[in-house]
Amino acid sequence: MIQLQNISKIFPNGVRALNNVSLTIDPGDFVFLVGPSGAGKSTFLRMLFREDVPTEGKIYVDGKEISAMPESRVPYLRRNLGIVLQDFQLLKRRTVAENVAFGLRVIGASSSVISNRVQEALEQVGLSHKRRMFPTELSGGEQQRVCIARAIVNNPLILITDEPTGNLDPMISQEIMQLFLEINARGTTVIMATHNHNLVNKLRRRVVALVDGQIIKDEPCGTYAYE
Amino acid sequence: MSLANFSFYLNEAIINLRRSGFTAFVTLSTIAISLIMMGAFLLATMNMESFLQHMQAEALVTIYLKPEVSITDAKTLKLRLTGLEEIEDIELVTPEQAARELFSSPDDQQLLQIGITEDSNPLPTTLRLKLKSGMKLKPLLTKLNNEPEIDNVSYGEDLFRQFQGLSDLLWITSLIIVLALGLASLFIVYNTVRLTLFMRREEILIMKLVGATNWFVRGPFMVEGFIQGTFGSLIAILFLFASYKFILAKLTLLTPFFATDIGIDQFFKLSVKLFMMGTILGISGSLLSLRDISRFSKSTPEGV
Prior knowledge:
The complex is a heterodimer of chains A (227) and B (304). Chain A contains 7 helices and 10 strands. In chain A, the strands form 2 sheets. Chain A has a 6-stranded mixed sheet with strand order 6-7-8-3-9-10, with helices on both faces. Chain A has a 4-stranded antiparallel sheet with strand order 2-1-4-5, with helices on one face. In chain A, helix 3 packs parallel to helix 5. Chain A has helices at residues 41-48, 74-78, 96-105, 111-124, 140-152, 170-185, 197-203; strands at 2-10, 16-25, 30-34, 56-61, 64-65, 81-84, 158-162, 189-193, 206-211, 214-219. Chain A is α/β, with parallel strands linked by helices and 227 residues long. Helices cover 32% and strands 26% of the residues of chain A. Chain B is of the alpha+beta class and 304 residues long. Chain B has 2 domains: 3-54 and 161-297, no CATH class; 60-155, Alpha-Beta Plaits. Chain B contains 10 helices and 4 strands. Chain B has helices at 3-19, 21-58, 71-82, 95-102, 108-113, 137-145, 157-199, 201-209, 214-254, 264-289; strands at residues 60-65, 87-93, 126-131, 150-154. In chain B, helix 9 (214-254) runs antiparallel to helix 10.
């Protein structure tokens, strides 16, 4: 599903965020990406949805080399990906349903398709009763669930998420994690960067640890510890 | 572009115009004021042209034929010139008629006294032309120059040259002003759209994250530009129409000799031009601002 071959990323200011990283992620995998701040986790994820390009190496997603993909094809790549970031990134002046529908509107889906898929996605995250509310009227956990609904409304092959529980309390974090597990159980590959060692240790999924831009650990049923 | 996309753009554009009320107002006013100024100059030039044409139409062109041209040849030439599209009326004046016109109470005796007889009349045979309304003098003069029988053409050259010079100057000035104002308003539209882009960069980021193409992101901004350009030009056209009617009425009252035939059809043509200019200004201003839309869609700056 995802293959990284000798990926290095050096920023214009000289910072080497990733150093010769190679990794393969199979379809349906659930991968935790752990490591200290500045280890290169976010850069790693940003490359998967082509927000950044590697300085060296190749990245394949669903068989296509995305590192050399022309800019004009990037939107079509992203339509097969779900992206959830730490800061909820919702449009505050739009309702929950409109926010979720946004992902379908931009690909020109018809109103009936939008209506059905939004309903399904909101039911999956348990927010169909709040579809007419605005993000500011929701709790942090609920806002993140709206983001997840928006990310899965297109039935993506891969869900990329960067610190999705970073702004949430432990209880809500567990609820959000449960959602990701359910999405993964339906066949979606999930890659999650996190600092939440409790969740990582509890779930015992594949753990990839990045330190100073290099993979120092890749365990199939790993724990958070990377020192 | 699908219908669903267009209705999305339109809806977004209307929401955003409402939301960014003041910036939208500034853009719209800039376009309207620029177009009013452009239109005013174009109107002044058109009026000058029309006035010049009136003068030309009223003018009598006198053609002096060469001494060796006989009356029969002059009559043939008259017949030939009658076929020209610019000419409304043509009159042949023989040397005798010309000599008689020279004196207020002419008789043969007086003509004899100054040495004009049937055999020795120094006055040339002439043709007097009257131009059709709306016809220009210059093309006619070119045609007349090709006639071998013609010695000289008189049409009040100095006055015409002065007016023609003034008219040319007005056209050049109008062109420069239209270009300068066009560029200035393009710059203002560019900057206001740029400002809106900064205010809405989070929205653009989300659009890009969920797979919107650059053209899809640009869509609502372009529709916004189109709406602002359209409304700006409509305001300008209405203002110009009202003030033109008012000024023309005053001018005709003050200077009765002032004649112009800028009718509703020509005003309509000018309105179409202004409308197109406004629309192009709005859309191109937006397009210019949006050419590097990718810069507004990075989730975090590079190198962080």
